[in-house]
Amino acid sequence: MTRIGVITFPGTLDDVDAARAVRYAGGEPVALWHDDADLHGVDAVVVPGGFSYGDYLRAGAIAARSPVMGPVVEAGRAGMPVLGICNGFQILCEAGLLPGALVRNHGLRFVCREVGLRVEAATAWTSSFTVGQELRVPLKSGEGRYVADAATLDALEAEGRVVFRYTEPAPNGALRDIAGVSSADGRVVGLMPHPEHAIDALTGPGTDGLGLFTSVLAQLTATAGLR
Amino acid sequence: MIVDVLPKAEILDPQGQAVARAMGRLGVSGVADVRQGKHFELEVDDTVDDAELERIAGTLLANPVIEEWVVRRVSP
């Protein structure tokens, strides 16, 4: 079974839901700890949401320099699928795996509600969607406003690396309504909304979020079959 | 040493704007803009050179994507 690591930092909140999403999608979640020196042989990594290290210094800044992130950055640069959700997205930006940064919402309000997301690119984590498909998932963040300089934003758009956009004006003021971006090879993806909270109609707005996890499992299974 | 970190001028600073609005409610006039940042005081010994100080500031204390910083050496 495909093994997907889920990292827990001090202050992580959504590791349990991320692990459940991996299990629902048919994968085996593997718990990784912030102090781990290696990735326990996993095939992909999810960096979940929360308030790692209490958001001290900047959201994600301390976690990005924690021991486990060394091998995550190395593996991500070499093509291992990595998904950062919310605080995980902030961590991947702080670690330099993804461009740009997440700053305080423009209205200073913590936004906690369902949002519409449009899938804008096929990546390791979105291949089971069609480009243009709209998803409903929860957004819950106070520092979710995606920013980067104009040249970086233009390059991301030109290279098809804007993976998710809000279907309404971004509730946090994110530039160009960007909710998620990817690495150049489409293997590392980060987004502010929470697909792992939208995998079961009992507890979420629906099951739209499950597609990210089934996407990566399908990709990894196909790759394993080629070996 | 002292490191002062501020959001870049082109980055929206809603916290600074909220502080500026609060000043208006106090009856303060003449303050056009407020930018809110961070002030770090580090005790370092003589083995830490300027290049190392700059590296600390630019790779950890500040995020170059959104912030600018100034490093100053001061005597205790």
Averaged pLDDT of chain B, please? 93
Q: Helix and strand succession of chain B?
A: EHEHE
**Separation of termini of chain B?**
9 Å
Q: Architecture of chain A, CATH level 2?
A: 3-Layer(aba) Sandwich
Please tally the helical runs of chain B, counting DSSP H or I stretches of 4 or more residues.
Answer: 2
Our count of helices of chain A gives: 6
Mass-distribution shape of chain B: elongated
How are strands sequenced across the largest beta sheet of chain B? 2-1-3
Q: Which residues of chain B sit in consecutive blocks of at least 5 with pLDDT less than 50?
A: none
Question: What is the number of E strands of chain B?
Answer: 3
Which structural class do the helices and strands of chain A define?
A: alpha/beta
Low-confidence region ranges of chain A: none
Class by SSE composition of chain B: alpha+beta
The percentage helix of chain B is: 25-40%
CATH homologous superfamily designation of chain B: Phosphoribosylformylglycinamidine synthase subunit PurS
Walk me through this protein's architecture:
The complex is a heterodimer of chains A (227) and B (76). In chain A, 57% of the residues are buried. Chain A has one domain (3-226): Rossmann fold, CATH 3.40.50.880. Chain A is an alpha/beta fold and 227 residues long. Helices cover 26% and strands 25% of the residues of chain A. Chain B has a single domain (2-72), classed as 2-Layer Sandwich (Mth169, Chain: A), CATH 3.30.1280. Chain B starts with a strand and ends with a strand. Chain B has helices at residues 14-25, 50-61, and strands spanning 2-7, 38-41, 67-72. In chain B, 32% of the residues lie in helices and 21% in strands. Chain B has 76 residues and is α+β, with helices and mostly antiparallel strands. Chain B is elongated, with a radius of gyration of 16 Å. Chains A and B meet through loops of A and helix 1 of B.
